[in-house]
Structures are given as structure tokens and as C-alpha cells.
Amino acid sequence: MSTARNKRESDTGRGNINSVQLEGLALMKIIKHCHEEGAGNTEVAQGVLLGLVVDEKLEITNCFPFPRHADDVDEEDYQLEMMRHLRKVNVDHLSVGWYQSTQLGNFITTQLLDSQFSYQTSIEESVVLIYDPIKTARGFLSMKAYRLTPEAISTVQERDYTPEALKKMRLGFETLFQEIKLVIKNSHLVNTLLCELYEMMPGSEGKQFLDLGTMSTLDRQLRCLMEYVDDLSQEANKFNNFQRQNAKQLQDKHKFMQKRAAENAQRQSRGEPPLPEEDVSKQFKPIAPLPRLDAMITSGQISNYCKQISQFCSQSLGKLYVAKALQDKK
Amino acid sequence: MALNLVAKVHPVVFFTIVDSYERRNPDAHRVIGTLLGTIGVDKGAVEITNCFCVPHNESKEEVAVELDFAKDMYELHRKVNPGEVIVGWWATGHEITDHSLLIHDYYSRITTSPIHLTVDTTLHGGRMNIKGYVSASMGVPGRTPGTMFAPIPVEVISYAPEIVGTSVTQKSKYIRQRIVEPTTDLHQIFEATQNMETTLDALISYVDDVLSGKVTADNYIGRELTKMVNQVPKMSAHEFEEMLNTNMKDLLMVIYLSQLTKVNVSLNEKLTMLVATQ
């Protein structure tokens, strides 16, 4: 059933988004919300994206934040109310996904997987925007759009994370999420506004990305990476244990079968009926295969960190060479 | 009446105003809305951090604002950020109309001395003028007092990430499709370096001109230049070389290790799959 639907989707191109176009307004709203939310605590800020789908492009034209303390507010009511009100002032009222802030890129989690899964199953075009306020404050705008791959969707649907299922779906940590190309677009009037703002904004700020002191950030990133590598090695240990147990059981079973076969041969030679084989499977219940979800997510996170770290290093190296050139000239 | 106020506005407010204007009803000539922000963090300044559009109807004779909408919307915004209060209202257009007075009166009832912000989205006079006002009553004692809108300075204030965000979106001005593609970190350094180079070139040619006597020296620029030169940390060539080398070694090591980790993780997955599905 689901494969049939997938096929139809790819035929019509529906639900198949290959680029995301973010309007300046939505970008600024996300930046503002995540900054204000991130100022006091370390919790993530989240919100809803509004926009529309044009062919295979998703246009995000507006957004609104989720309330800070979700316990005393009915989130669904709030969302509906907000969308109803925004609709009145002609804002696109199609919810096209959600955004979330992250710290140093530690966003690949089971929660993200589950939320994005429920979004994508209810609204096929949904994306999740991941915004990193810390990196942006350092001078590099970090906004990424992600979607679950069709393979990931059907796997989550089945809730089957056994190695066999994953192999069948050809799902690995690299194919769990797909990054969608993101561009920022402004209307002519906004461009006019930007000209005005350019004159009003202090020109000397926003150059902090040329900072040569890189060690603190690198240190933090590596620490996070180490933590996740530890997690992964635990997962690997678990898997090894499972493998050992499995092997042991197989061996035992094999021995038992051999014994039983010998016994049966004896009995046959004596002309007695052979012993039944059913109790074998009872005695050696197969061990449930380990779900690989956690390992997959951890691996995804690690590879994301690695990507970030190499990006960070390459830009730092670039800066060092610039500094060197300047020093030599002097 | 505090006439010496300064309105410090975050860029997101202008973005919202312009967007609201673009999404106005076909028959509407202007849009209005509520400004949210904080008063008194900084003495004599009102920080405007957020705003929303309020539907209204305007004809020659009368004006009708959907006040319930404004109230509901304010409540909704409060749930996200309880710190933001109503500090005034905004309108598009380049002038203050008679109706502005009525709307202003309404906002005066909600907050003391509301700020009125106008953004000229009709580009009157060729640019998007942004102006702020507060109202002051005037007139002769004993007669009906009038209201005057006194202009106040408007400044743009932003959080550090907001500066980065706007400077990235600035690039859409130079591209025909008005699209900015986020670049990699390294590319950004490259652009900044180019920028630096052009600035340095301009500076060098200026200094050369001064030295050759083509341009008269400006004391102010001279002082700023000396300040800048003094800011360069004093380092011997050897020290610098050492700093550079250690940093580079560190970075190269980290790159190597992170690549190694990546390969290992892939290998781990592949092998696990292979073993598990035998």
C-alpha cells in the first residue's frame, strides 16, 4: 500500500520537494525568536512555518513561534488561533513545517525524527528548518532545511528497526534525513527596505567571523563529538554482546541437534520411533534482534559533527593564511 | 510628555511592516498595526522588538479598526514572550492623516504616550522613509487643546544574529532573481578577504596621495589610522610563525581525526549490517 502511494507521489511530483525558498521576513522572525528564547535557558525554540508549495519548490513566507511554556497553554488551540488571525491579514495559512533551534548542531535526535515523521505524514511537503543561533552569532548564518527520505518514512511507519528491515529499505544514517537546498528571497520592496536599513545599521559590526581565536569553539565541538562517539561505542558493545549471545545459542542449538540426531540414529537402529523435533525451537527461542535506531541516529549525529568540524577547520585555516599574508606584507 | 524619546527598532519589525503592506487587501491604501516592545531598559529609549498587522477599514469619512483582533493577537504574542508590551502603533505611508489621530487616541488609552511609526512603503520622494512620532497636546489654556505629532529619532538596533541575518539578506539586492544562496563558511572568509583587499587598496591610494601632496591630510583620519596601527598586537616574526604553525597543526590534526571518525562510523554501520543480516 505504502509503496504504491510512494510511486504515485514520485509520478506526480507531489510531496517531492527539491528546494526551499525562505523569505527574509521568516528568516528574521526565526532569528529573533531563537535569540530571545536562547538568551535565558538552553531549551530549544520551536515554531511553525507558513507558506505554499509551488511545483517542487516550497516557499516559506511567514512563521510564528510556539509559546514558551507549553504546559499552561493549549498548543493546538494556540496554533489554530494564530493561523486564523494571520489569515485575516492575508498571510499564507498553509502550515508547511516547523523550525527548531539547535546548539552546535546536536539536532539529530529521536524526537526530531518522530516530530518530522508526524509532520510529513500529515502534510507531505513539510520541512524542518534547523537554525543554529550560536554559530550565527559568530558570524556565519546557519539555517538548514531537512526532510525525511521516503525510505525513512516507511521504516518509521512500520516501527521496524531490525537490521533486516533496514537492509531491505537500504536505510542508513546517511539516508535518514535529506538536506534540501535552501535559498533566501526578498521582494523588491524588501530590497528597498534593506537599502534603507543598510544606512541605518552600524557598518563595523557583524565582522566577528574573522576572529582568529578558534580554540574554544573547536574544543566544544570536539567534546560533543567525543560524547557521541562514546555513545556509539556503547551501542557497538551492545551489538557485540548480542552477536556473541546469538552465536552461543546457535552453537548450543547445533550441539543439541547433533546429540539429538545421534540419539535418533541409535533409536532407529533399535527400531524405536525418533524423538520429536518440536521442543528444539521451544528450548532455543531466538533472541530478538537489536533495534538499530539509536545507533543510526548517533551515527548520523557524529557524521554531522564531523562535517561541521571540517567546515570549521577549513575556514579557520583560511583565516590563518590571510593573517599570514598580512603579516608577511608588513 | 517625553519628547526626548528614542525609538530603537529591530529590523524584523520593518520586515513585518513591508510584508503586511504587500499583503494588503486590494482596495486598501495603507495598513496599520500594533508595535510591541519594552520600555525603560534604557533610559529615554523604547525598544521595539515585534509588531503585527491589524485589519482596518478606512474611507474618507471614517475609520474602523478591528480592535478585537488587535487584542487577541496581543494575547497570542504574550504567550510567546510575556516581556513584550504594546508600545505604540505603526502605519504605512508618508504622512499623518486625520484618521491617525483617532487611532492614536485609541492606543493612548492602552499605553501611556504611544509611539507612532510610519514606514513609507509608497516610496514617496524616492526612498523608504522611516519616521517616529509621539503626540503632544498643544494649544492655548482654556481652549480646546490640539494634538501635535512630534518627530522622534528612530534608530535600528539588532541582536548579533540579526546583524548577520540582515547582512546575508542584503546580497539579494545585487541579484536579478533576488535570491541569496547561503554560502559555505570558507566562501564567506573569501568574500571578507576580498572586501578587506579593496578597502586596503583604497586606503593605500589615499595615504600615497597624502604623502605625494595631492590631497591635504585630514587629522581625524590620521589619528584613526594611528589608532588602528597601534592596535595590531606586537609580535616578533618568530612568535607569529610559531602561533601560526601550532594553530595549523591543531586544525590539520582535527580535520584528520574527524575524517577518520566519519570513515569509521560508516564502516561500523556497514559491518554491523553485514554481520547482522548474515
From TrEMBL, chain A:
Keyword Protein biosynthesis: yes
Signal peptide range in chain numbering: none
InterPro entries hit by this protein: eIF3h, eIF3h_C, JAMM/MPN+_dom, JAMM_MPN+_peptidase_M67A, MPN
Primary residence: cytoplasm
Stored Pfam families: eIF3h_C, JAB
Family annotation (Gene3D superfamilies): Cytidine Deaminase, domain 2
Residues of the MPN domain: 20-152
Stretch list, region Disordered: 258-284
GO cellular component: eukaryotic 43S preinitiation complex; eukaryotic 48S preinitiation complex; eukaryotic translation initiation factor 3 complex
Keywords: Cytoplasm, Initiation factor, Protein biosynthesis
Compartments where located: Cytoplasm
Top-level taxon in the UniProt lineage: Eukaryota
Any one Gene Ontology BP term: formation of cytoplasmic translation initiation complex
Record-stated family: Belongs to the eIF-3 subunit H family.
Role summary: Component of the eukaryotic translation initiation factor 3 (eIF-3) complex, which is involved in protein synthesis of a specialized repertoire of mRNAs and, together with other initiation factors, stimulates binding of mRNA and methionyl-tRNAi to the 40S ribosome. The eIF-3 complex specifically targets and initiates translation of a subset of mRNAs involved in cell proliferation.
PANTHER family xref list: EUKARYOTIC TRANSLATION INITIATION FACTOR 3 -RELATED (PTHR10410)
Name of the protein described by the UniProt record: Eukaryotic translation initiation factor 3 subunit H
Source organism: Petrolisthes manimaculis
TrEMBL record, chain B:
InterPro entries: eIF3f (IPR027531), EIF3F/CSN6-like_C (IPR024969), JAMM/MPN+_dom (IPR000555), MPN (IPR037518)
This protein's record includes keyword Cell wall biogenesis/degradation: no
GO cellular component: eukaryotic 43S preinitiation complex; eukaryotic 48S preinitiation complex; eukaryotic translation initiation factor 3 complex, eIF3m
Location of this chain's protein in the cell: Cytoplasm
Pfam families: JAB, MitMem_reg
SMART domains for the chain: JAB_MPN
GO MF, one annotated term: deubiquitinase activity
Main localization of the protein described in the UniProt heading: cytoplasm
Keywords: Cytoplasm, Initiation factor, Protein biosynthesis
GO-annotated biological processes: formation of cytoplasmic translation initiation complex
Positions of the MPN domain: 7-139
Family per similarity comment: Belongs to the eIF-3 subunit F family.
Subunit structure: Component of the eukaryotic translation initiation factor 3 (eIF-3) complex.
Annotated PANTHER family: EUKARYOTIC TRANSLATION INITIATION FACTOR 3 SUBUNIT F, EUKARYOTIC TRANSLATION INITIATION FACTOR 3 SUBUNIT F-RELATED
Role noted for this protein: Component of the eukaryotic translation initiation factor 3 (eIF-3) complex, which is involved in protein synthesis of a specialized repertoire of mRNAs and, together with other initiation factors, stimulates binding of mRNA and methionyl-tRNAi to the 40S ribosome. The eIF-3 complex specifically targets and initiates translation of a subset of mRNAs involved in cell proliferation. Deubiquitinates activated NOTCH1, promoting its nuclear import, thereby acting as a positive regulator of Notch signaling.
Protein name per the record: Eukaryotic translation initiation factor 3 subunit F
Record organism: Petrolisthes manimaculis
